[in-house]
Amino acid sequence: MINRPLSPHLQVYRLPLTAILSISHRITGVLLILGLIGIAGFIAAAAAGPELFSVLFDALLSPPGRIAIWLWVFALYFHACHGVRHLLWDLGHGFNKRRLLIHNLFEMAAAIALTSATYVWADLASALESTTPY
Q1: Which of 24, 31, 103, 128 has its CA 20 to 30 A from that of 16?
Q2: pLDDT tens digit string along 39-73?
Q3: At what angle do helices 97-131 and 63-90 cross, to 10 degrees?
């Protein structure tokens, strides 16, 4: 048996944040597709009749359903923020180490901020709807 050096693997080598965000971008793309399939199923359930629609609607309003919805919203914003980053890269910006770190942090902060803003907006809209006198 020939003793050859092993190349670094994930137990030895730590992935840079840019690589982790790139992998996350692909994962959120898959989650977005699954969410769109779920939305199509929800529309089909609405067309099938009120019984099935009611069951699915109650499932969406349950705590796991709400968590799934907000994770999907976060995936949407994260995927969009990473897409903007790719547009910047296509323009030739942000390839030095300092800029990569700044873009990494901004991308994550923007996705969290957009998700939080959407949550606050939805909560306010829900509160206003419940106080409407009609």
Answers
A1: 31
A2: 999 999 999 999 999 999 999 999 999 999 999 99
A3: 140
